[in-house]
Amino acid sequence: MRIRLRGARVIDPGSIDDYLDVVMEDGLISALLEPGTPPDESNPFDIDCSGMIVVPGLIDIHVHLREPGHEYKETIRTGLLAAARGGFTAVCAMPNTLPVNDGIEMTAFMVSRARELGGSRLYPVGAITRGLKGETLCEYAGMKRAGIVALSDDGRPVERAGVMRRAMEYARGIGLPVISHAEDISLAGDGSMNEGVVATRLGLKGIPNAAESTIVMRDIALAELTGASLHIAHVSCRESVDAIRRAKKRGVPVTAETAPHYFTLTHEDVARYDTHAKMNPPLRTEQDRMAIIDALGDGTLDIIATDHAPHSSLEKDVEFDRAAFGIVGLETSLGLSLQLVRDGVMDMAALIKAMSKNPAKLLGIDNDLKPGNPADLTVIDPEAFWTVDSKLFASKGRNTPFQGYNLKGEVFMTIVQGRIAHGIPDGQG
Ligand SMILES: [Zn+2]
């Protein structure tokens, strides 16, 4: 199949920002041409993309797909459909499934299931420790051969620094990044939202910033000690940002992500005990939100991920302190993140770096828009207005705090390996 996207603004941060025709054949990008050639009426995949922006496929480095074990919340199929709708040509699936992805068989299962589906790509993240118990390291080398791209016990921290050190030493030896879910369990306790005035007003137990930042600092120290590539997941607060900024200045091999909810919402959004505003780490203060935005602007935070965490109403339609942590994010991430461009926090190229190029770099993937590379790309309609309606999500999860939000900027098409994973050109179905 030959696809041609005609006349879009093509942005590949650092190398391309120009109006071009993108031609794809046999799953690969075959040419980037000056526009102006007349349309090919006989090919329904010769698509007018004027007004659109074509970028290297977005990659979400942090999602929970729930299969195996909790298929009622999400399956690999529905999760990858949600990814394609959100413009993501690839996602990294965290290992906290049931059973945990802590061995070759589980990794192989996920890889083959995704391959069977043929939509957005799935890159499994392997567990740091068996069963996420924080004790015995998994067999990283074999899991890497089976397809894992990183290591994490996400959902839980690795509580003992000595275990984390050994994990980093092993990971460094075979070239895998270690993703830290930075949370001191003893400080987080049974808190259910940010510690502060809002928690006090609502009578809820709080989680202090220090529950996150102390482990961020610990893991930075361990990355410095071992030389391992460390990636900090879901950064929510000012103190973590400060620690990461200082570490980068010293040359520590650390990268970090935040999620759209941390730069869009604050703990005030929990006000009516809305369990769709309950996630871990929790929504913080306005001061923290501004620190996250500054850090995206100056590149201290490299990546925007979603921490897509689908739950059913069983886990969410309960009292706030009993509700599960987490929200879905795949289908709202781009729309929310484009606001950063309109607010002047970053330009479009910097946003595409945060949502595509930097995750690719961390995972060792070459997703440059150039002939010969896999045709993984996202077509964005930057002017489209739409309203978030969770009932229309491809994800099984309806747990979003952004229900009813009016967003500007929509995914027009998601193309993976030269196949349309989302978006149907006019006249097609
Ligand atoms: Zn986490």
How much strand? 15-25%
**In one word, what is the shape?**
globular
Work out the count of structural domains. Answer: 2
- The appropriate CATH architecture of the largest domain is Alpha-Beta Barrel
State the CATH superfamily name of the largest domain. Answer: Metal-dependent hydrolases
| Main sheet attributes: strand count, strand direction, barrel closure | 8 strands, mixed
* CATH structural class of the largest domain: Alpha Beta
How much helicity do the residues have? Answer: 25-40%
Number of strands: 18
Secondary structure elements and pairings:
Layout: E1 2-12, E2 16-25, E3 28-33, E4 46-48, E5 53-56, E6 58-63, H1 76-85, E7 88-93, H2 104-117, E8 121-126, H3 140-146, E9 150-152, H4 161-174, E10 178-180, H5 185-188, E11 193-194, H6 197-202, E12 206-207, H7 210-226, E13 230-232, H8 238-250, E14 254-258, H9 260-264, H10 286-297, E15 303-304, H11 313-316, H12 333-342, H13 348-363, E16 377-387, E17 406-416, E18 419-422
The structure holds zinc ion.
Zinc ion binds next to loops.
